[in-house]
Amino acid sequence: MIQKIMKVYSTCFSKILSILFFLITGFISAQQYPVQIVPILIPPYTLQTSDFYNGTFEKLIVQLTNTDISKPVLSVRLRMTIQGQSAVLRNKDHVIYPTINLDAGTPQKISLSDLAPYFNSEHLDFQGITHAQYLQTGKLPEGFYQFCFEAIEVFSGKVVGKSSCAMAWISLSDPPFLNLPIKGESVAFRNPQNIIFQWTPRHLNSPNTAYNTEYEFTLIEIWDNGIAPEASFGTSQPLYQTITNATTLLIGPSEPQLIPGKRYAWRVKAQAKSGIDNVDAFRNNGYSEIFYFTYQNNCPPPLNVIANINNGKASINWATNPNNNSAYVVQYKENSQSDWYNVNTLQSPAMLTGLKPGFTYQYRVGSNCDVGSAVYSDVKSFVMTGNKGDSANTNCGVLTAAINIKNQSPIQTLHTDDVIMAGDFPVKLLQVSGSGNFTGSGYVTIPIIGQANVKVRFAS
Fold it and tell me: Please, are residues 301 and 242 in contact by the beta-carbon 8 Å criterion?
């Protein structure tokens, strides 16, 4: 009896194994595609779809291999799908595409003009964007994309190459930020001519920085002071234009000579290069904001500008100008930053506080011969003493300094951007009201908690 039962179980088990083997081999057979597809996106990535089939350098490659040795030649076409977060482009099926003949075992590369029929707008179905939008810009919206390809046999219409995708995050970078001369400032006349222009690139942290960037610098003279400087760029011929790979440009004696008393405007265009091809990688076609300045000849900049570093502070000194009928302004910033901070003062020196140990700072001093139009000295730099991350030697706000104060006369004027001391801590004033007795707000920089800025209010 036991032997009969074991025989029945053995027979059933054999049948089950046979069925499983049949299902597995059938599943494997159903998943076999004779054409292997490997799409490749080559950085720098671009949203301009024409870059994928035009130019001298390949941006998209589709490698096809016929792995079916029983078919020496396999005739196929492609089906492309571009899948994004806000847009989908897919090739129409009822279109005649070029036939690609694949020899067995021999990889074949499809790129540039061979891909052009698949990007033809008449051969695409659109989701997320319209056909008209695609024709107007020729660009994809920014975002994450998959470029997927299938191989379709020409004669049977069957899929002989399983969909395979290349993926990339594709976005545009911001154009440069202009630094010097600051928008609307006066630039001192010098003989010989020596004017420095600086800008900061804003694409270096982009995932699409695998390209060389060059900058087109353009300077124009503003003939009509009654119109906006921005409008002058549309009506004026460039006074000086050049291409550079640097982010600093000197206009010296060998460049066109600027006329004292005239206003000038300038801008920078960033252009990404892949070999000799231009790559559409920047917003606003790479154009920066337009800055302008007055070339001043009746107000010399402060001279003998120097910084003295002591006890975590920087004292900026200069020779005062007897023609200055207003105030001075000291500008400073971290070397790696683009924003300048202002300290207004009536005389030399000016004290800079809240600076970080081990960091490099740039500074310059402006003389206000005409109110609101400062003429600045050359940019200089200094390094704060100490190591980065160190805390200053501060007594955590103990008011020991109060007993040593010799000048007990109340201050008569306070202005925004002035710096006062609260014990060991400098207070930068942001808002001031009153006369003789003052109230307002500002911030205190506390070294022992990582140079943190803490907002404060004060009253006298």
Answer: no
pTM of the model: 0.68
- 53 and 43 Cβ atoms separated by less than 8 Å: no
What is the three-class DSSP state of 153?
strand
pLDDT digits (tens, 9 = 90+) for 383-395: 998 887 665 444 4
Q: pLDDT (tens digit, 9 = 90+) per residue, 249-258? A: 999 999 999 9
Question: How many angstroms separate the CA atoms of 381 and 348, rounded?
Answer: 18
Write the CB contacts of 328 (distance below 8 Å, at least 6 apart in sequence): 302, 318, 320, 344, 345, 346, 347, 348, 350, 365, 366, 367, 368, 374
3-state secondary structure of 284: helix
Torsion of CA 246, 248, 252, 258, to 10 degrees: 120
Residue 422, Cβ density class (10 Å: 0-12 exposed, 13-18 middle, ≥19 buried): middle
330: amino acid identity, one letter = V
Q: pLDDT value at position 326?
A: 63
Express each pLDDT in 312-325 by its tens digit: 889 999 987 666 66
CA distance 303 to 369: 14
Residue 374 in tokens: 């400062």
Rounded to an integer, what distance in angstroms lies between the CA atom of residue 302 and that of residue 376?
7
Report the alpha-carbon angle 40-46-48, nearest 5: 115
Measured CA angle at 307 (ends 322, 360), to 5 deg: 135
Please give the residue that has the higher pLDDT: either 227 or 307. 307
Place of tokens 């179980």: 9
CB atoms closer than 10 angstroms to residue 207: 13
Averaged pLDDT of the chain: 84
Structure tokens, 151: 């191989």
Tokens in use for 439? 């109230």
Burial category of 1 from C-beta neighbours within 10 Å (exposed 0-12, middle 13-18, buried 19 and up): exposed
112 φ, ψ (degrees, to nearest 5):
50, -120
Rg (CA), the chain: 34
Provide the terminal-to-terminal Cα distance of the chain, rounded to the nearest Å: 109
Q: What are phi and psi of 49, to 5 degrees?
A: -65, -25
In the prediction, which pLDDT does 404 show? 47
DSSP string, 370-427: ETTEEEE---EEEE-SS-TTPPP---TT--GGGGG----SPP----TT-EEEETTEEE
Specify the amino acid at residue 352: L
Rounded CA-CA distance 326/367 in Å is 8
Cα separation, 77 vs 98, whole angstroms = 7
pLDDT value at residue 31: 59
